[in-house]
Amino acid sequence: MPWKEAGPMLERTRFIEDYLTGFFTISELAVRYGVSRRTLHKWLARHDVDGSNGLADRSRAPQHSPQRTSADQCAQVVAFRKRFPFMGPRKIIARLSELHPEIAWPAASTVGDILRRADLVQPRRRRNPPAHPLRARTTPANAPNDLMTIDYKGQFRLRNHRYFYPLTIVDHVTRFILACDAFGSTEQGHTRRSFERVFRTYGLPRAILSDNGSPFGSPGLARLSRLSLWWIRLGIAVERIVPGHPEQNGAHERMHRTLKAETTRPPESTLDRQQARFDRFVHHYNNERPHEALGQKRPVTLYSPSPRAYPESLPPIEYDGHLELRKVDDRGTIKWKNEKLFLSHTLDGETVGLEEIDDGVWSLFYGPTLLARFDERERKFYG
């Protein structure tokens, strides 16, 4: 099966994502991925049943093995466990081998499987570090303003040898470019002003998807930045791509390729002239250019502003009454069990909420947003 060298799982995942957009037929995707329609239908069926796990290659091991443990041996193992309920698989095998050395007993791992099938083993609860709570695409994107994608398109040098950084803001569903602004840096101040203009003009989205770099994210707790904290205050869900996986914002990256080809080769001589060139590109992209992913429709024919207006004053952060509330001081710390606990300087002056979800394990919230899990015994944050 000629999946690309990037890996079959990645290609199958991309195929599922392309299919779920509704913009492609199976025949078109078969041509794009170089496989038969029958193969694509097979992976769709497996994904419908098992989700992403169904995209993995299945074992080609035989269904039956001549070395399979006999029913009599299984019965003896079960009977021995019921007689000695505190013996584990290794001890059971050691003892049965002494009592019946003439029998070739299975490995301890096989005995463990036998005991699990007989419901004689209580699984242990493991505390795996939870996944990052702000990972990408938990918010479905089906209509305009469901998801706004954003990015800085690297850096370019003008003909006067000064660098500039294009900030692009796009409605994911309709591909409508909301802003393409050329800045001399990626600092938070002018980035926020650009968003304020977009929010006043087009309203608020349900969610924003970004990478993890500045000014959208930071290396600190939950990768919070001042900008993402502001979005949360506005009632916008913050989504992140997995670090090192720009393909999770693939539609935006594809637009960037067109932007680079049409507006930066060669660049203009000044920042103002470059911005004028970006403005012409945005008008053409939104109003004149049909998009294959949209069924050859133009973004302007599909996009409409959000009904959620931008509030000039931030709404207060509210918490349920059962949460433990803590005020973050100017050092980014809260008081916990008579000790100082550092969270993040981004949260200076804010109030956070903690909810106990297990013995000594707490969920840390900023408003409705889960930031991390906190283990008070280890005094560590996860996520």
Topology:
Blueprint: H1 8-20, H2 26-33, H3 37-50, H4 71-83, H5 89-99, H6 108-117, E1 147-152, E2 156-157, E3 163-171, E4 177-183, H7 188-202, E5 207-210, H8 226-233, E6 237-240, H9 250-263, H10 271-287, H11 299-302, E7 324-327, E8 333-336, E9 339-342, E10 351-358, E11 361-366, E12 369-375, E13 380-382
Parallel strand pairs: 1-5, 5-6
Antiparallel strand pairs: 1-3, 2-3, 3-4, 7-10, 8-9, 10-11, 11-12, 12-13
Content-based structural category: alpha+beta
Strand % is 15-25%
Coarse morphology: extended
Number of separate domains? 4
- CATH homologous superfamily designation of the largest domain: Ribonuclease H-like superfamily/Ribonuclease H
CATH architectural group of the largest domain: 2-Layer Sandwich
Order of helices and strands: HHHHHHEEEEHEHEHHHEEEEEEE
Share of helix, binned: 25-40%
* Gyration radius over CA: 28 Å
Sheet with most strands = 6 strands, mixed
| Number of E-type strands | 13
Report mean pLDDT, rounded to a whole number: 87
CATH class of the largest domain: Alpha Beta
Uncertain runs are 129-136
Query: What is the number of helical segments per DSSP (H or I, 4+ residues)?
Result: 11
N/C terminus separation? 37 Å
CATH fold-level name of the largest domain: Nucleotidyltransferase, domain 5
